[in-house]
Amino acid sequence: MKVEKLLHMTGGAGDSSYAANSQNQGKVIQKIRPMMEEAIMEVYKNLLPEKMVVADLGCSSGPNTFLVLTEVVKIIGKQCKQMGLQLPEMLFFLNDLPGNDFNNIFQSLDSLEDSVRGDKDAATVPYFVAGLPGSFYDRLFPSHSVHLFHSSNSLHWLSQVPEGLESKGKYAPPNKENIYIAKTSANIVVKLYQDQFMRDFSLFLKQRFNELVLGGQMVLAFLGRKKKDVYNGELSSLWGLVSDSLNSMVLEGLVEEEKLDSFNLPFHAPSMDEAKAVIKSQGLFDIINFQMFELNWDPNDDSEDDFVFDNMQSGANSALCIRSVLEPMIASHFGAAIVDELFSRFAVHVAKHLVKEKTKFPIIVLCLKKKEQI
């Protein structure tokens, strides 16, 4: 799988598009707003830059794309007005892989101004917006040029599917009938995924360390694992239901078994300990804040109850959400003809699962500050 070409959310504005099914990403951004506000103001008050550079890594497209930009401009404008500080010029970079629907972003720029200027208590901050296609596992900016990085719902995506998951000769693949870590996965599957995450996250930290100014910060949020059992994590349950749907189609001859055996997600949901271990081993950043919260699978369910009110509707809502994320990869590997049937079955599997357990998305959130001396 060529991840950089295939890993992008479903574009456009249709019913199965990411733009129409990205409510959870918006909830994450709103949830971490206090952390963002603290990071932005500490960076600004300590450095007082005339020009402030902020980058949103993994911006995708849709109603949430400008949410971080809007919040940053309002926070800076409000604080500068209250404290009598000089307004900086702000440059925002919106980054994602080249397959992202950047056209949709640029076409939406006209509506941005009303959102940014909606706070009467905030001073008018001059800002400029640029798109930046590329992988955040590569260098994206000149050295010491960025004041603040933000990334939500992106760092769980790996730079590649871990090597070693493919079948070798007459031997079955170690993750047969699964697309991610599952109860039936071989031990080596867990190690391969954890090692790939460690390499990728380490590289991400090194790249951002070189690009941040001294005193610069990062606010990151990504899917993680709350359960101790790595074989039974919350995301293992979710992807397991996709696997179940694909396996049922294999049994009916709708999907080739070899196709399923050769499909594994470039994804890993780490525990908090896994993520913290990488940060500490690199020694490049101080951990300012580190926490976890949860969101329901159904993006339209904001309740904190441990049960669902309508499991069939929640199954359908969850399926649309996951389809908006997986469809490009599924269509490329298995063919577009199976997509509707696959996610119809997946919706039923999710509905049945939610009756037994209302599993949630664990979200790891952290704020990191570039160390002054290494």
Strand count, sense and closure of the main sheet? Answer: 7 strands, mixed
* DSSP strand count: 7
Q: Describe the global form.
A: globular
- Terminal CA distance: 37 Å
Which structural class best describes the helix and strand composition?
alpha/beta
Helix content: 40-55%
How do the strands line up in the largest sheet? Answer: 3-2-1-4-5-7-6
- With helices defined by DSSP (H or I, 4 residues minimum), what is the helix count? 12
Estimate the mean pLDDT confidence.
86
N-to-C series of helices and strands: HHHEHEHHEEHEHHHEHHE
Which range does the strand content fall in?
15-25%
| Rg of Cα set | 21 Å
**Unreliable residue runs:** none
Give an overview of the whole structure.
The chain is an alpha/beta fold and 374 residues long. The protein has twelve helices and seven strands. The chain has helices at residues 3-6, 23-31, 33-47, 67-83, 102-107, 112-116, 187-211, 234-251, 257-261, 272-282, 311-334, 339-356, and strands spanning 51-57, 89-96, 127-133, 146-152, 212-223, 285-296, 360-370. The chain has a seven-stranded mixed sheet, sandwiched between helices. Strand 4 (146-152), helix 7 and strand 5 (212-223) form a beta-alpha-beta unit. It is globular and about 70 Å long. The two termini are 37 Å apart. The model has no long low-confidence stretch (mean pLDDT 86). Keywords: Magnesium, Metal-binding, Methyltransferase, Transferase. It comes from Rhynchospora pubera.
